[in-house]
Design a protein that fits this description.
Blueprint: H1 2-5, H2 11-45, H3 55-70, H4 73-79, H5 81-88, H6 93-118, H7 122-130, H8 135-146, H9 148-168, H10 176-186, H11 191-219
Length: 222
């Protein structure tokens, strides 16, 4: 009975799809962190009452972030096809999924970075200013180290969101477990393929959550 239920499973295809999902997740998460952290720092520093306050810059950044966050990811995938083609030379496969994944996740993570920085006591920043620290020194030696547990927790939440994004990217032929689930599990009514892909996605999310929680506790010295 077990062999009959799993008769549609091609384990090499499952392995390749899992590898593609991990590749999309790793590449997009790295770029999301690279773009999201500076963007979140700028949102924090330019806010009212902060050391780099600028109402115009803060509102402009806020509008851009909010617009990107408000677009459903499936629509963002389609809207960005011309830009993805120009950047990557293709809108299909792992390479074609990276730009929309980053565009969808970076603004989300930037807001989490901003929230983590807001939790730092104002007195900590004022003490650094009193000692003559420059703005860059405050960012690199005060803000980011103090907010590190929150930054890691935010990265964990973002990585989990990216897992679901990679699954949705299968709609436009991005590959990965989501693509396999849609083409075989849904369109061909192969319940065993759907079950295996969903189980692997759930396992991946659990591993990300456990690893992120463990790392956040390790760096939290409060």
């Amino acid at each position: 009975m077990q062999d009959g239920f799993f008769q549609n499973i091609s384990w090499p295809d499952i392995g390749q799809a899992t590898f593609d999902t991990l590749l999309m997740l790793g590449g997009s998460l790295l770029l999301t962190l690279i773009l999201g952290i500076p963007l979140g720092v700028l949102l924090f520093l330019t806010a009212r009452g902060q050391i780099g306050r600028s109402l115009i810059a803060n509102r402009l950044l806020g509008v851009i972030v909010n617009i990107l966050r408000s677009i459903p990811f499936v629509i963002l995938l389609i809207v960005m096809i011309p830009l993805t083609l120009a950047m990557m030379g293709t809108s299909l496969g792992v390479a074609g999924a990276i730009p929309p994944l980053v565009a969808g996740a970076a603004p989300f993570y930037a807001r989490l970075v901003e929230t983590a920085l807001r939790d730092i006591p104002r007195s900590t920043i004022e003490a650094a200013q009193a000692m003559g620290a420059t703005r860059l020194q405050i960012i690199g030696k005060v803000l980011l180290p103090e907010a590190l547990p929150g930054l890691i927790s935010g990265a964990t939440v973002t990585a989990i969101a990216l897992v679901s994004f990679t699954a949705m990217a299968g709609v436009v032929g991005a590959g990965g477990l989501g693509d396999l689930a849609i083409r075989y599990g849904y369109q061909r009514f192969q319940a065993d393929v759907m079950l295996v892909t969903v189980a692997l996605l759930v396992l991946l999310v659990q591993l990300i959550q456990w690893s992120g929680d463990w790392l956040a506790r390790r760096v939290d010295h409060r």
